[in-house]
Records
---
Amino acid sequence: MIIASNIAEKLERSSWIRRMFEEGARLRAERGADRVFDFSLGNPEIDPPAVLGRTARRLLEADEPHRHAYMPNAGFEHVRARIAERLAAESGLPFTSGHVVMTVGAGGALNTVLKAILDPGDEVIVLAPYFVEYAFYVENHGGRMVLVETDENFRPDIARIEAALTERTRAIIVNSPNNPTGVLYDEADYAALDELVTRSGREILVISDEPYRSLVFDGVTAPSVPRHVSHAVICTSWSKTLAIPGERIGYLAISPRVPGAATLAGACTFTNRILGFVNAPALWQRVVAEIGDVTIDVRPYQEKRDLLCDELEAIGYELVRPRGAFYVFPRTPIDDVEFIGLLQKEGILAVPGRGFGRANHMRLSLTVPHATIERAIPGFEAAFRRARAGQGASPSDSTR
Ligand SMILES: Cc1ncc(COP(=O)(O)O)c(C=O)c1O
C-alpha cells in the first residue's frame, strides 16, 4: 500500500464526520436538499462582519514594501504586541509580544506547542468528550493521549485527572466553551486544576484550546485562563469568532508565569517553522490586529440554542444546556449509532457521541438556519418515539 499503515488506521478512526458528510450527499440526492437537515458540521454558516472584508481590502491595497515577504517565524512584532496588550488587560499579567506566536489557526497552535514539549512516549491528558483531532495532534509528535472522563455535567473531574497523572504527563488540554458539549468552565474549575498541577510538583502545562472563547451566551464572560492557571498556554484562532476558518489565522500565548516562558516561546517559533507553517498568513495577521475585539453576533446562536434545547427537552431528550460554542450534545434514548440511523430516516444528520469519546450521546451543530431547526423538530420527535417504542415503552410516555 502507498500510505503508511498508521495513517490508514487513523483514517478509519477519524471517519465519523466524513461518513456523515457522505450520508448527507446520499440523502440530498434521494430526498432533495430541502428535506435534509444537516446538524453534523461545525462550519460557520454566516458571513464574517463587514468590517473584516473592508479592512482586508484596505490593507491589501496599501502601498507597503515587502508586504508579501517572509517575516520572523513568530509573526509581525506589532501584531503580537497588540495581542499581548489585550491578554495583559484580561489577565492582569505582564504579557509581551515575546509571549505570543502567530499560528495557522488553533490547530496550528496546538501542533506547534505539542511539538515543542513532547518527547516520544510523553503523555497528554484530554478530557472526554473531546475534539477528535487532539488524538492525532498528540500522536503527530510521538505523544500518547490519555483520556479522562468529565463528570455527568461534562465538567473537569479533578480526582480523575489526578489519578491519571504520571511521570510522563506533560500537558492537560482544556477546551471551553467546549466542542462537542458547549459547556463553559468557570473560575472554580480552573482554580481546582491549578491547585492540582501545583500540588503535583510536576512541570505540566495547561493548554487552553479556546477558539470559541467569545462565543458565549446569556451575557457571561469566559474567564481568562492565565489569570487562574499558572502554567497556562493559550491556543486559539479567529476561525469561529469571525467565521473565517478558511483563512487559517490564530496564535499561541505562553503565560509569563510559565517557568522558562521565553525558552518555550523560542522553541514554539522554531517548531512553527519546521512543521512547515513557517509563519501565519501575513495579510490576516494584519487584519486581526486592526479589527480588535470584533466578533460575530452570538445572539442568533443563542436563539437557536434556546429553540433546539426547549423543543428537544419537551420531547423528552436529556441534555446539558450549552453556555457557549455552537453545539448541543444530548443523550440518545438508545445506542447512539442506532439512533443516528433512526434520525437519518427522518432526513436528520447528526454525529454519534462515540466519535467524541462519549457513546449514547450525539452532537448537533447550531450552524444551521433557524428554520431548519423548526422544520427538523417533528423528525427528532418521530425518531425519539420510535426508539422508545422499540424498547417497549409506550410512545405516549416519551412525547408531548
Ligand atoms: C475545539 C477545537 N479546537 C480547535 C479547532 C481548530 O480550529 P482552527 O480552525 O482555528 O484550526 C476546532 C475546530 O473546529 C475546534 O472545534
---
Amino acid sequence: MSIPALFQPMTVRGVTIPNRIWVSPLCEYSAGLDGVPTDWHLVHLGSFAIGRAGLVMAEATGINPVARISPHDVGIWNDNQVAAWKRITNFIHSQGVIAGIQLAHAGRKGSSAPGWGADYDGTSDAAHGGWQTVAPSAVPFADFDPPVALDSAGIDAVVDDWAAAARRAVTAGFDVIEIHAAHGYLLHQFLSPIANKRDDEYGGSLENRAHLARRVVRAVRGAVGESVPVFVRVSATDWTPEGIDVADVARVVSWLAEDGADHVDTSTGGIAPGIHIPTGPGYQVEFADRIKHDSEIATNAVGQITTAEQANDIVASGKADAVMLGREMMRDPHFALRASTELGYELPYWPEQYLRARS
Ligand SMILES: Cc1cc2nc3c(=O)[nH]c(=O)nc-3n(C[C@H](O)[C@H](O)[C@H](O)COP(=O)(O)O)c2cc1C
C-alpha cells in the first residue's frame, strides 16, 4: 500500500521529520525554581518518541528567568539546563525522532501560579519564586500584577536573550526551534493592540507592532544558521474585533518568512480573558489553511485533533502540512503507532521492544 499522507516524511531545511504527527508543546510545571528539566520531562517527552511522533516539541521554555510562565517552568538560559536537555534530546534521537523546543517569553502573563499544585491564583509572589513582569505597555492581564513597560534597552536585551537561547538549544541537541508568538505571551502582546499601547516604533501600525517579532526571527535565524528549521507559533486571531485577525496575522507571517521563518504552527486566542472561542473538532484547521495559502508557507494545524482519520484527512487535503496533538498525546503517547494500524500502514520504524503489541 502507498504511504498515507500522515506518514509521509517532511523535510524542512536540513532536517527530515519522519512523519506528520507532531507533539504540541505542553507545559508541565514540573521543574524546580532553577528551570532545569527533570526526569519527568525525560519520560514525558521520551514516551512520545517511543510512540513515534515524528517531531516532539518541548514545552514553552523560558529564554531568561522572567520569561517563564510560572516559577516551575523549564528554562534554557544556562549550562545546567543545557546539560539536562541534552539527556532528553539524546533519548528522542535514539528513537529516530526529531526534537524541537518552543522558546518563550511570557511577558505580562509571566510569574503566574503553576497550572497545578498551587494554593493561590494569579501572580506568584516572591515567596513562591515570582518576579516583576514586563510587557509592551503597563497594562495587566486579567487580575495579574501590572507589568512594567519595556524600554528600548529592555527590548534589545530580549532579542539578545532569544538568540542566546536558540544557540543553547542547538547545543542541547534540538533540531527544530519554535518561537512562541501566540497565546497572549510577549510577542503576541506586541502584535495585538489589546496589549500594545506604545507610540514608538514598536506600537501603532501593524508593521510597528510586528517589529519585535521580526527582530526575534532575524536574531534566531542568525544564531542557528541556515540548516536549522525555525518555526513560529502564532495566534491567528484574537477572536474579537478589538484584536488582530487572520488577515493581519497572514501579513505578519509573510514578513516573518522574509526574516527567516520556515513554518507556522497555527493556534489562536489567549490575549485576554473572557473572549468566547468557538471550539470543536479541528476548529483551528481553517486558520492553518488560510495562512498556508495566503502567506505561502508550510503550516501545521492544532486543536482538537484526536483521530487517525481526521489527522490524515487534514494533511491529505492540503489544508496543513502536518498536525500537532496536545491532549490526545497525553491520553495516548503512542498515538502514531495506533494511527498507523488504523490507517492500515505497516510502520517500518515501530519500536522493536513493542513489536509484540502490533496487532
Ligand atoms: C497541559 C497543557 C499545556 C500546554 N502548554 C503549552 C505550551 O507550553 N506552549 C503552547 O504553545 N501551548 C501549550 N498548550 C496548548 C497546546 O499546545 C495545544 O495547542 C492545545 O492544547 C490544543 O491542542 P489539543 O486540542 O490537541 O490539546 C498547552 C495545553 C495543555 C492542555
